[in-house]
Amino acid sequence: MTVHLLCARGPASLLNFCAVTLALFVLWPAPASSASRKFSTVVIDAGHGGFDRGGIPRQRVAEKAMTLDVAQRLQKRLRQAGYRVVMTRDSDVFISLGERVRIASRYRDAILVSVHFNSAARVGANGVETYYYSNNSAQLAADIHRHVVSSTSTENRGIRRRGYYVLRRSSVPAVLVECGFLTNPTESRMALDSSYRQRLADRIADGVMGKPTPPNRPVVAGLVHLPSPIRSTGNYNDFVRAEAERRPTYRKGSSKKSSKKSKKSSSKSAKKKSSSSETKKKKKSAASDE
Ligand SMILES: [Zn+2]
């Protein structure tokens, strides 16, 4: 599963940096001191690994490598901020989804942040989307998503509720971030840039720390907006309905072009459509376990 910037800091800005650091201490409470953020442990879950490359067949950039790199950067950042950080994997190994959840469940005062990059057969598909399942994960999802989206030039695909295994089975608040599409030429190029991956990690960390969220960036047109399950300041309207399917959306037979064709369909193609819908269902259930 996929997402993305940084400011160069010149030596002259050391004083500013100190002032900002001081301000941060005042504005942003230390871990576990905030009433709404009673966790001291962050379990970071780098998606995929080992024989599971992630993404779709023939995808050039391996998702598992990108997720691990962002996860390790995030780990460093959060440790520096004083959190205990646990990694579900810290190398290129396969870890089952059940084991990922078991690791997170060992900690009571924890959250789980699963890092993924997205993929689609339609190369134009792009943008950042963030998933949660339980209501007590919605605030965390919004915080992370809004920070990540603010640092990218790619599309805001909204915050979505979906029962991915690690979200559904987690006993602690859990969020899954899709940091952008590795199948999109622009986003895969960005993901291959280490400064961009660092920016992704920094922004995810900002969300975890509950830093004030940046101004809203509208979500991409065409998504169905849902009422916000959380109370938040700012003009956000970024909770959207998760589409019925993720990857299969862009597969053969489901694009706009082919849906036009299907209007003219004969009974033969209707039959074909029905079998493609069964395939979709299978693929959907596979995607739910990401
Ligand atoms: Zn993934």
Total discrete domains: 1
Strand order of the largest sheet: 2-1-3-6-4-5
Total beta strand runs: 6
Please give the oligomerization state of what you see. Answer: single chain
Give the overall silhouette: globular
Q: What value does the average pLDDT take?
A: 79
List ligands, each type once.
zinc ion
Identify low-pLDDT runs.
1-35, 245-289
**What class do helices, strands and sheet pairing give?**
alpha/beta
CATH topology: Aminopeptidase
What does this structure look like?
It is a single chain. The protein is α/β, with parallel strands linked by helices. The protein has one domain: Zn-dependent exopeptidases (Aminopeptidase), CATH 3.40.630.40. Helix content is 38%, strand content 13%. It contains nine helices and six strands, in the order αβαβαββαβαβαααα. Strands 2-1-3-6-4-5 form a six-stranded mixed β-sheet, with helices on both faces. The longest helix is centred in the C-terminal third of the chain and has 22 residues. It binds zinc ion. Zinc ion (ZN) binds next to loops.
